[in-house]
Amino acid sequence: MTLFVEFDRFADAVRRHAGGGEPIVYLQMRGLVPLVTFYDAASGVHIISTAEERSVAKVQSELAAEGFTVEQGLWVSEASIEHMLEVARATYVVAVAYQAAGGPGVWMDAYPYHPTEGTVLRAMFEEFVDEGLLGEDDFELFLREAQPLVRVLTPEDAERFIEAKVAAQAAEKKRRAAVKGEQSPQPSEH
């Protein structure tokens, strides 16, 4: 059996389902996301979590603070492989509308996890600093002057938009075929 939990619930889930002894958890990076796994051979319970927006060092530190031994590696099952593939395909697209001296602007980025508004704004700010548009100490000024508005497009949102577009195109094609059928000359009877 495989259980997927939020990282904040991982430690409790391991304690609840561990058969005894000192639980060892395994940590490995998957792209930009730390993946944490636990397996209890006695019960067959496999627990998986992704620790988005955390560094490997932070994840290791948090797990050690919970009393776990942390090893490098990954427990793998069919379910975890499917989950990893799903996580790898998940792309969150962000758009930030903002005000600039030359008029309104839009800044875009993509993440392999659902970013927080703070993560997005910090990334945007750092890019502007790297490009020489802002100074390193101008974050508060940036927020005040740019008046940024963050929107995150989740994979589910994207899928829903695509499904709606496909349905609308099919309906339009059907409507055009019906109109064309009404306009075609009818055979005359003599």
CA radius of gyration is: 25 Å
How far apart the termini lie comes to: 75 Å
Number of helices: 6
Which CATH C-level class of the largest domain is it?
A: Alpha Beta
Tell me the major beta sheet.
Answer: 5 strands, mixed
For the biggest β-sheet, the strand order reads 1-4-3-2-5
Count of individual beta strands: 8
Structural class: alpha/beta
Order of helices and strands: EHEEEHEHEEHHEH
Return the domain count.
Answer: 2
Contiguous uncertain segments of 5+ residues = none
What fraction strand? 25-35%
Average pLDDT figure: 85
What is the 3D form?
A: flat
Architecture blueprint of SSEs:
Elements: E1 2-4, H1 7-17, E2 24-30, E3 33-40, E4 45-50, H2 56-65, E5 69-72, H3 78-89, E6 92-100, E7 103-111, H4 117-130, H5 139-146, E8 149-153, H6 155-183
Parallel strand pairs: 1-4, 2-5
Antiparallel strand pairs: 2-3, 3-4, 6-7, 6-8
